[in-house]
Amino acid sequence: MSDIILGIESSCDDTSAAVIRDGWLLSNVIASQDVHKAYGGVVPELASRAHELNIVPVVSEALSRAGVKAQELSAIAFTRGPGLLGSLLVGTSFAKALGLALDVPAVMVNHLQGHLLADFVRQEGKEPCEPSFPYLCLLVSGGNSQIVRVDSPLEYTILGQTIDDAVGEAFDKCSKMMGLGYPGGPVIDRLAKQGDPLRFKFAKPHIPGLDYSFSGIKTSLLYFVRDEMAKDPEFMEKNKEDICASFQKTLIDILMDKLIKAAKQTGIRDITIGGGVSANSGLRERLVAEGHKRGWRTFLPEFKFTTDNAAMIAIAGYYRYLAGERAPLDVAPVSRLSDF
């Protein structure tokens, strides 16, 4: 008998539902919220209200596209955290209520685990391409920057992580500083393709071990732009492509230096990336290049699996369901999770 899992993701501003059967993706529906662009970032109260409006039609559409009736579900996987508490509350409450109504178990998933396992989502017509355990994942997003050793679908060890800002936060804040809009990552990536990454130099932190820091590079960019615009008020407009290219290269250098160090220390050669920043073209190209140079097997998630999506929650929930994990009815969402 097949195991059919409905995944629900509502950690930030995207409402998503997906259906998988025995690890194979049947549907993945995402409803995004454009309202936040006007504010230069996600407004938590607006996000939770939009989730309330979107979750029923999104789940209904996911089941319809999958050709699955709700009564056929084996379990419902949902994101417990980390994320925005109000947004998580909508997904958590809906998953528990639906599971209770259908008399099927709910399975709670750490949002970050979903990103770690995105490569294991199998799709019809595509050859499965999965890393072998153990592998290293560079997990980079607006809220997290970590190097994680993945020993099995249920076993993870954080080898290094940011001690201040996440790399995605650095992209967004610096984009806002330069007046380029939100979200900053895609804008900077697009402009960087037209610029010279060697034109300008920005400060790199010297953090011991495998931890990251991205607060210093933001300060470096702020002072650099301030000083140059004092000399020429048009400096930003004249040089924004080169600034973006140089800034992005510095961030990628910081990320890759620690990842290379982690690979050397562990001897692991299967390397993946995950999270929203894994969509960055410069980072993807650099990872592939380093892989060729160092004999790594590198795995890049499809772009649709880099942003928040329920397919990754469904696959993570699938493995937890098979392991016998079940969420109690009194489980509550949490905005922060200390570990996996």
Question: Quick recap of the structure?
Answer:
This protein has 340 residues and is an alpha/beta fold. The chain is built from nine helices and eleven strands. The radius of gyration is 20 Å and the shape is globular.
CATH top level label of the largest domain:
Alpha Beta
Named at the architecture level, the CATH assignment of the largest domain is 2-Layer Sandwich
Structural class: alpha/beta
Which range does the strand content fall in? 15-25%
Instruction: Name the strands of the widest sheet in spatial order.
Output: 5-4-1-2-3-6
Uncertain ranges: none
Helix content estimate: 40-55%
What's the order of the H and E elements? Answer: EEEHEHEHEEEEHHHHEHEH
Our Rg estimate from Cα atoms comes to: 20 Å
Per CATH, the superfamily of the largest domain is ATPase, nucleotide binding domain
- Principal-axis shape: globular
- Span of the ends, CA to CA: 30 Å
Specify the number of helices: 9
Total tally of structural domains: 2
Tally of strands:
11
For the sheet with most strands, the description reads: 6 strands, mixed
What is the mean pLDDT? 93
